[in-house]
Amino acid sequence: MRFCNSVLRNCLAHHIRRLNIVCDLSVINSSDPFGPALRDALTRLVDVMASAENLAYLRISPGANVLFIEMPAMLSTLLVHPPSRSLELTYMTGLDWLENHRFVGLRHLSLGFYYSPKDVLDLLPVTASSAATLESMHLLVDRTAATLNFREGCMPYSKLRMLSIAGVNFRLTGFCAAFPKVQFIRCGGTDISMSAPTHSGPATHEPQILSELIGLDGDIESMALFGPSCKLRMICIPSQIDSLSSFARLTTAISGNSLCSLSLSVKLQEPSWQNVTRGLDAEHFFAEICRTAPRLRFLSLRMNIAIRPRGHRTDPGHHAARQREAMADISTVASPHLAGLDDLQCFHIVFAPHTDSRTNEFWADVAVLYLSNLPRVRFLVLDFVQDLICLERSEAATMHKDGVADIAEVDLDREDVERLLERYQFEGSDWRLDGVADWLRSVRSLE
Fold it and tell me: Could you give the angle at the alpha carbon of 124 between the alpha carbons of 123 and 129, nearest 5°?
């Protein structure tokens, strides 16, 4: 309230370029003693929005739809004085209120729906006026999936390079026509139809190609769909790969691409245990990754290790020792294959081990093993979920007589290490992915 009054009293609203409204809607209830005060503050905020003639970025989360219902004046103000560059709204329940309005010249659009009241999510009425300017779009439908409708002959999003979609189904034909220049796609919970029915009868199966697509964050299905026909430089699959069939689909999809960045979650067996129902064979996994992606500069592996049962001991100390043995064996198996990745600069391992007094000493040995066998790796990051170690080898580092490289632990907090990894994962694989990491961080904060 004081902020809004000060802005209005001193005529400062025209200086506002970015506005982020985060509101706990549970206190709006009239029976709550803070309800009236909050309503008064929101009323003043509406006045600020109406006076912010240079507003470029507007984010309302969570529950933009409920806020608009409780404060109709805020919705009216948004429609009359929309932001010029970026609009982000979460937990909407439909598009009806937007269909008769036009947001002109937007570059970034993010819409999150609590559920879709329609089977078909028709974005054309909302985005037509910004189709020629949009550079990024995020669509999220929670609870119920929606079908994204692309009208025939609609204007393509010719400048859109970053797209995030979740809980949205679509036909590939319309998708490729709508986003011909997209460079990065993040998708989850989607059902992609390979073809669309024609006026004459059966569906067509002509291959669709997104010639500019170089980065993909999704599941095995989307990888198998886009990978073979695109020149992917960066791939991220968050869901765990634990079967030979899924891994074979992945290697088939990435074979032939000039892949530079790969992030996977994988379940591996300890090397002495051959059981196809308990994860992937480590030797086969690393051999195939290095064969199909020999130009990797960044590799991130979230590893879950299946350990062969021995006896009946269940104490944490015994399990921690078994995990150390399995990881040591996997590291020994992996190193000769990874040594063939001449361009690998950053190696990231995520592992949640049972810990005991020997854990840190053990991981130091693992780090030495990897770095001594990977002469071009600049950064090795060991992430134990609750702890993290970042090791750096200087570009001018030399090898000691005992074969151990000069390395040092980097004094960075987790956030700084994550930014370092993002730099190698995205723009480190291709300069055209510059800015994707920051955009994804913003998108995830809305989910």
Answer: 115
What three-state secondary structure class fits 223?
helix
Residues in the chain: 447
pTM check: above 0.85: yes
Question: Do both 117 and 61 map to the same domain?
Answer: no
Looking at the fold, whether 110 and 41 belong to one and the same domain comes out as no
Token digits of residue 276? 């196809």
At residue 91 the predicted structure's pLDDT band, cuts being 50, 70 and 90, is confident
Helices H, strands E: what count in the chain?
Answer: 13, 21
Tell me whether residue 30 is exposed, middle or buried, using C-beta atoms within 10 angstroms of its C-beta: 0 to 12, 13 to 18, 19 or more.
exposed
Q: Print the domain residue range for 62.
A: 1-75
Please state the domain count of the chain.
Answer: 3
Instruction: Tell me if 270 sits within 8 A of 317, measured CB to CB.
Output: no
Sorting pLDDT into bands at 50, 70 and 90, what band is 119?
Answer: low
Q: How far is CA 263 from CA 44, 109, 221, 240, 329, in A?
A: 47, 27, 16, 11, 22
Rg of the chain over CA atoms, in angstroms?
A: 26
d(CA 179, CA 127): 13
